[in-house]
Amino acid sequence: xxHELWGPEIHNHRISDQASPLVSFILKYDLIIWNDKDSEPTxxxxxxxxxxxxxxxxxxxxxKKMNWQVIKNNFSDHNYLVFNVVSFNATRDPPRIxxxxxxxxxxxxxxxxxxxxxxxEIQTIDSKQKLEKWIEELTNTSNQISQSxxxxxxxxxxxxxxxxxxxxxxxxxxxxxxxYQRSRREEERSMRRIVYKKQxxxxxxxxxxxxxxxxxxxxxQLIANNAFDLSYKIAAGKIRKQTVLQxxxxxxxxxxxxxxxxxxxxxxxxFPTDDSxxxxxx
Length: 282
Prior knowledge:
InterPro entries: Endo/exonu/phosph_ase_sf, Endo/exonuclease/phosphatase
Pfam families: Exo_endo_phos_2
Helix content: 40-55%
Strand content: 5-15%
GO molecular function: catalytic activity
Number of strands: 6
Order of helices and strands: HEEEEHEEHHHHHH
Organism: Araneus ventricosus (Orbweaver spider)
Radius of gyration: 34 Å
Structural class: mainly alpha
Number of domains: 4
Shape: extended
Protein name: Endonuclease/exonuclease/phosphatase domain-containing protein
Largest sheet: 2 strands, antiparallel
Distance between the termini: 109 Å
Strand order of the largest sheet: 1-4
Number of helices: 8
């Protein structure tokens, strides 16, 4: 499939829209194209050459790309696509950032104002480069105003006993609660409240069951090798708690502020400095 996104523009070629589904797929999932438009053709025969082989990845992996190139292959019409990837530790996707209604309205007003400023330039756009520049200015305005907002990241608690069953029940509970709160008629509201409360009770019961089962499995793993290990010591109260030093009052009737001052004050009280002038001579 030929397209200007991953290959040079070919004039006098038959009109074809075969690459449109792939382009839509790339845009939908925010994929990055690694291909270099100025590279050697990825497909080459005696009669023709083309750029139809594509390398795609996520934006996170694309930042680690190094030395993407096309190497001739004498045993096939398709050439080799060779690249290097910088070693890195796999990380989770960055957390999603949510905007409230006021922030979204502020972004819309800023983009609308910028659009009015650039509106006259639309008539002068006669090339792909000018169009991309015009879109980039509009996009930069949106990004600048959105980055000025304080970030409120929604983080979810990660526990080992959480599974798909709990996830489904949580969504169901929230949906029933939303339906109950949106109800206006008294009869419908009472009925939906009963349904919501039953689901909420079942959801809470599931959480307790999963949590307890996970803890029991943890205990079984602890005593698998030694029954008198950590679990036995905890049950028998044989775990020594770490000593916590509190603030003490100094000779100046002030309390210490850190552990170092506390230790020095205690040592000074137990082992005072010897004063030779107060010694009794025999």
